[in-house]
Amino acid sequence: MKRIYGVSVDFIDGFNQSARSVHPDEFICYHRAEEGVITEMILVPGTIYGDSHSFISEWMTPIDLSRAGSAHSHPGHSNEPSDADLTFFSQMGGVHFITCLPYDRSSWKAYDSRGRTVELELVF
Length: 124
Fold this sequence. Notes:
Layout: E1 6-8, H1 9-22, E2 28-34, E3 37-42, E4 48-49, E5 54-55, E6 67-74, H2 83-92, E7 95-100, E8 109-111, E9 117-118, E10 121-123
Parallel strand pairs: 1-3, 1-10, 6-7
Antiparallel strand pairs: 2-3, 2-6, 4-5, 7-8, 8-9
């Protein structure tokens, strides 16, 4: 996979809108990248959104070689990963986003598979 250097503003806006739509539950999805930029969400049928966790069924996940990581929301004001988030990140690899209240363009943060912050260019 090509190195990820940016994220589409359309992805961030859609991700935050999705998080708002399931609040106070957590939203979760995978995402794909094209030419080093994260461009769109991959919504998986049967995903469960819960108040303290979310769950994606791997059995329902499409085979997609452009899948570049995950994105999920925290219903509070912290976009820092929990221990469970760090475990998930390490099992999947890629770039992982967490957004939080107020679910806007400044609410998100990106992490690598070890939970280290990743700086990404916002691509308009």
